[in-house]
What does this fold into?
Amino acid sequence: MNLILLGPPGAGKGTQAQFLIDDYGIPQISTGDMLRAAVKQGTPMGLKAKECMDSGALVPDEVVIGIVRERLQQKDCAKGFILDGFPRTVPQADALRVTLEQLNMDLDAAVALTVDTDALVVRLEGRRTCPACGAGYHLQHDPPRKEGVCTKCGAQLVQRDDDKEETVRNRMQVYAEQTQPLIDYYLQAGVLIEVDGMNSIDEVRTAIKQALGK
It folds into this structure.
């Protein structure tokens, strides 16, 4: 099962990716992880990526694609893969299509978790984290026993900057601008699966499995 996982911040991609790993026995591959691994391993593309990162430049598409190609040929991808965070643009999607053709691989589905921005703001804005022990809470769904205080260790809870409303809305806007062309791209390719990411975790998992089963 060869998959691409699309979804804005807070849509639950990480959770659903773990379910896909468990259900299909395939690895989740993120761009960041691939770049770091390629640099650490000193692969040809990893060395090129390191040159760019050391100079402060963005890693060009051809290098990222090369690293994706190297990664997809590793043994743990024999049964399939979940690409997370790549492609981000239509040119990258085109390059990925060519790469998969060259590797005799097919893309089975691009799974897009859709969300309502206002509902997502409520979901993320309510999150609180303990800076001492790392415990997580939600003001509505999983509040601490005492307001503002970690139930586990008693430390004061904090709200991450990227969970604040203005930041969330900005991130959603950027995601929409970057990703909508990809949604259209994979819709035209006939492999797009859209799932309502605002449903419960189990409902989302079931919907994805049912869609992939078809």
Q: What stands out?
A: Helices lie at 13-24, 31-41, 44-55, 61-72, 90-102, 117-125, 165-188, 201-213.
